[in-house]
Write a structure and sequence with these properties.
This protein is α+β, with helices and mostly antiparallel strands and about 240 residues long. It has 5 helices and 11 strands; from the N terminus they run αβββαβββαβββαβαβ.
Length: about 240
Amino acid sequence: MTGTGTPAELDNAVWHSLVGPRSHLAERRDRAARFDPEVSVFAGLPDDASPGAWDDLADLLGPRGVAVLGRRTLHVPDGWETLMTVAGVQMLAGPDLDVTLTGEAAPEPLGSDDVDEMLALIAATDPGPFERRTIEFGGYLGVRAGGKLIAMAGERFRCAGYTEISAVCTDAAHRGRGLASLLTRAVAAQIRARGDEAFLHAAASNTTAIRLYEALGFSLRTTCDFAAVRRVSVS
């Protein structure tokens, strides 16, 4: 059983993760929710976010608090400051995605004891937001060389029937060896093994990553917007 959730939920995957399968990692104020800041910078609002939902988000964040929002279409209302925006794409795994690892060394599971190394790799490669407790999303796998962590990937947002592959990164000195492909397929394999289907996000400007994912068997589902926002006044 794959892809059993409503595909429209993926238009607002952060929110549906926060109020669904990832709710144990969330903080909520009625019509707004965010992940524990030690887990992730992302927050979410309902599909039909009302002015009251934005007020709930402001209450949740506190004075001058910042959240990163991501959804298919994002409209930031008056009274909020946009600190950063990124145009993105959302891609879905298709039937051509081969998750078999025959003849390849399987990546190793990563746990809490590996967090310092994971944070160092994130700092060197900048694949996107990653906090000390991001590993609690689960499903992280890594590759080592000479005992050093040189590549990794894991899971993040999860809606009913879909799980996101995230934090795919490789140390610059070890690129060109197919490690990103290996890790993406390995994480997709464990997602499929529990009955979900894989999806992922990439910056629209990251054409190299998009070409890699297309070659693996992912296809574009939609474009999306990501923005860091902060309340600056009360209307």
